[in-house]
Protein: DUF2002 domain-containing protein
Organism: Mixta theicola
Amino acid sequence: MYLRPDEVARVLEKAGFEMDTVTPKTYGYRRGENYVYVNREARLGRTALVIHPTLKEKSLNYADPASDIKTCDHYTRFPVYLVGATQDHYGIPHGFSSRAALERYLQSMFD
């Protein structure tokens, strides 16, 4: 079982991220130069945390992504995915099975 989006949001806030964007599909969080999204549509939490694509290689040292990419027109602070018909923005989705695992990941990635 993965953390639900609201649980991921609470862990982000505890880690010093500040919510600055709310849409029907996402919460956007900033801490310094770093930006992440919480995928509000991830009911089971498997793709609840979405990181910037440029962090993919670094992230592989700490967690496996849930899939190669996650596209959404609401990820406006991320680049546009130019393959396919839609041209949506994209990021790298992750799911975490515990708050402690997410906290460790955030500390490794963003501290």
Helices lie at 5-14, 56-59, 99-110. The chain has a mean pLDDT of 96. The beta strands are 18-22, 26-31, 34-39, 49-51, 70-72, 89-94.
